[in-house]
Amino acid sequence: MAIAEAPAAVAAPVASPGIVEITGLRKRFGSNEVLKGVDLSVKRGEVIVIIGKSGSGKSTLLRCVNGLEVFDEGSLHVDGQPLLHGNVAAMRALRQDVGMIFQNFNLFPHLSVGRNVMLAPSLVKKRPGPAGVEQAKRLLARVGLAEKFDAQPDQLSGGQQQRVAIARALAMEPAVLLCDEITSALDPELVGEVLRVVESLADEGMTLMMVTHEMNFARKVADRVVFMHAGRIHEIGPPEQLFGSPQTAELKQFLSAVH
Ligand code: ADP
Ligand code: MG
């Protein structure tokens, strides 16, 4: 009996995986479940702005992505690599791929600005002296601080220190940059200079996941806005959708409170 030849397998178009793939992510602190199943796929070059009230799990989510928190369930991939706690080589690779900037700059106070930017690559990437200096100068120029290479952190304003922190994160050439309320500790007049640097990174194609209360920035720069509520992604979509036609009572209430 002739058997009909099976049609040649046609490769199904596989949606290209995100640079950050978060699936079913759960995180508990004791009996307090802080992330209750988060799914998010971030495309290369995408700018994700995360909003939501205090305690909704925004920082914990970012801290899971760069391996600062051990999650309980689900999976997390960065640039195709699974985040495996306990696997030293995998965690080291992750730390190089994921940069993070915090509210309080966290510069090394005893090191010059240039040394702050050069430290991690000199330790991890074994970038030799002159190349490291050149890279640090280029990155400081990129954040508008070319002339501050030899300054000490405490000689700089908060906005300048935060821009150094951005340059320091970029020195590791991360695939993704996480920003957790990076303008919240700044005097209002210094917020703009930091946001302009972040916007320029976005324009240059950097993948960003950014927690912020700066709604105007979110409107202007985000590709998608994530509204976190009680440990879940409660709404997600382009800024015009989330800000223009919020669907849930929780988001409506949040937006009326921040405006
Ligand atoms: P957000 O950044 O949205 O304000 P967080 O992710 O910081 O929220 O916190 C979410 C919840 O997790 C809060 O209830 C907070 O108290 C709790 N939490 C965060 N970090 C810890 C920790 N290290 N130990 C215990 N509870 C924590
Ligand atoms: Mg937070």
UniProtKB/TrEMBL annotation:
Pfam families: ABC_tran
Keyword Cell membrane in record: yes
Listed GO CC annotations: plasma membrane
Membrane topology of this protein: Peripheral membrane protein
Transport as UniProt keyword: yes
Gene3D superfamilies the UniProt entry points to: P-loop containing nucleotide triphosphate hydrolases
UniProt keyword terms in alphabetical order: Amino-acid transport, ATP-binding, Cell membrane, Membrane, Nucleotide-binding, Transport
Subcellular location: Cell membrane
GO MF annotation terms: ABC-type amino acid transporter activity; ATP binding; ATP hydrolysis activity
UniProt xrefs under InterPro entries: AAA+_ATPase (IPR003593), ABC_ATPase_HisP-typ (IPR030679), ABC_transporter-like_ATP-bd (IPR003439), ABC_transporter-like_CS (IPR017871), MetN_ABC_transporter-like (IPR050086), P-loop_NTPase (IPR027417)
Family from the record: Belongs to the ABC transporter superfamily.
Protein name: Amino acid ABC transporter ATP-binding protein
Organism for this UniProt entry: Piscinibacter gummiphilus
